[in-house]
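Could you show me just one protein sequence together with its fold in token form as a worked example?
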Amino acid sequence: MLVLKLVKPIAAMVSYIHYKRDRLRLAKLIHKGLKIGKNVYIMDDVEFDGEYPFLIEIGDNCRIGRGVRILTHDATTFRDLGVTRLAPVRILEGTFIGERAIILPGVKIGPRALIGAGSMVNRDIGEDKAAAGNPARPYGTFSDLLAKYRQNAKSGTIFKEEDFEKGVVTAEKMILALRDLREVFICGVPSKDPYYINTDMNEIRANARQKYNELASSLTPSEPAAIEPERETN
């Protein structure tokens, strides 16, 4: 127990230092010309091309997963031609880039497209496309994927983020629910989420509440309501 008491604050400090260094690096890239729209969510360890960040544009309401790499230069030609190829990368409004994806020079993605985790994107991915693989290829539409998850959520188990933070919903409860279900859902925005850029958090929270209310109101009498865990009583 003593070891845990000592390790926790050290781990928290290391995590905080890593976060601050990551955000400072991002701020420097923005200063060098990296273009980021409003309400953009950028996780840590995203590698933007450090030499030519001014060739990268990220539109409003995009989400960039942890460890994504975005390149705007290609040195394939350097040894034989003496030149390095440069090309811009544009990630348009409402696009979701999954963790560890690699975006190569000259690519345009979106608007409202999805790139699966671990994918390598070497060509344009158009509006509303869902793509994955190495190289990434469209396998459907973002709209169809959302419709599938919307239907699953309507008849599934939905936990509240605030209950999870307060300990009303525990890891054990989630695991228990997943014994009978392939997936569960959680609604709401964490009380602390430092990865938003150029964002009005009140707007984000209001939009999340509105979308959840729309989901809940779309239930018909013949459909089972979303299940929320009962609050524990003393």
